[in-house]
């Protein structure tokens, strides 16, 4: 496995990388992981750091490719498969794998380039986009199989680069169902030092530009206006934190909003979900509507047995249609607030949605299920 990811940074990329590596080892494979940063110390996974966390981009690319190529050459011919988290900097190792006739599976999580992507104006942005398109085409040509995390992303790859559909498999992001499980709300609230008598709306994740915080905060404030026992909790950090705080103030809910920042402790993160009544997703579809998203937090919300209110977005929509939840049109504040209010006013329905979702996630969307589906295509 070559994943040019910093394992010292506890974000979604690290979670995905570590979970897939552990899952493949659990399937009985001899996994050799090349990434950056500290050893994740996974049973059955031999780790080889390609570079330290702080390495600059050029040295990092050289380091991870050199380490991956060494591991490819060391593995017995006929018994090796190469799994790559897509990054244009991984092309040298992909080329070597092709020369060694090693089947290669490329995992694709997003596509911030290409036809339909809202790039910035200017020659520099145009040139960067062209380079990324060429690199993507080389990646598809060098791969035996491609994993896309949403059907919409798979469709873009197939349509815009004329890739054989048989070469592309959709596997959504998984969930750690052992960590995220239904919990007693009052007990979870006490664990966090929160009032167990109050109800909570929860958003977890990076505070970044692809989250529609305008709709999320306005919709939450609409629902909270007639429900004085309800609070908004946002767990995360990022460049949009100041704007989020301004929105909370503008909508008059600053005294009922908790913004604790980034939470690295996964047990406490699970407790926040346990203490919630409703979990929220609200993506900006003008940025993600083309390829969709499969956010790890959605599976975690559902595994925790909490109902979800989200805007319609490829990937999110399919999972909620499968597991249950309320979907509203993008940017529709009134509909978003009304959906939250419906669930707050009908706790029996909310509990039933959450319980059913948790059962489905544990059956179909665990990291173990992701590993089984991945292992099945590695040697094609």
Q: Enumerate the strands of the largest sheet in spatial order, edge to edge or round the barrel.
A: 10-9-8-11-12-13
Number of helices: 15
Strand content: 15-25%
Strand element count: 13
Please outline the major beta sheet: 6 strands, parallel
Rg from alpha-carbon coordinates: 21 Å
Q: Report mean pLDDT, rounded to a whole number.
A: 94
Distance between the termini: 16 Å
Derived from helix and strand composition plus strand pairing, the structural class reads: alpha/beta
Low-confidence segments: none
* Net shape: globular
Secondary structure: helix percent: 40-55%
List the helices and strands and how they pair.
Layout: E1 2-6, H1 12-26, E2 31-36, E3 45-51, H2 57-74, E4 82-85, H3 91-99, E5 104-108, H4 123-142, E6 145-148, H5 151-161, E7 168-170, H6 185-191, E8 199-204, H7 213-225, E9 230-235, H8 241-250, E10 257-258, H9 266-274, E11 278-280, H10 285-288, H11 296-303, E12 308-311, H12 316-323, E13 326-328, H13 333-345, H14 347-364, H15 367-375
Parallel strand pairs: 1-2, 2-3, 4-5, 5-6, 6-7, 8-9, 8-11, 9-10, 11-12, 12-13
Description:
The chain has 380 residues and is of the alpha/beta class. The chain contains 15 helices and 13 strands. The strands form 3 sheets. A 6-stranded parallel sheet has the order 10-9-8-11-12-13, sandwiched between helices. It has a 4-stranded parallel sheet with strand order 4-5-6-7, covered by helices on one side. It has a 3-stranded parallel sheet with strand order 1-2-3. β12, α12 and β13 (326-328) form a beta-alpha-beta unit. α1 packs across α15 and α3 (91-99) packs parallel to α4 (123-142). It is globular, with a radius of gyration of 21 Å. The two termini are 16 Å apart.
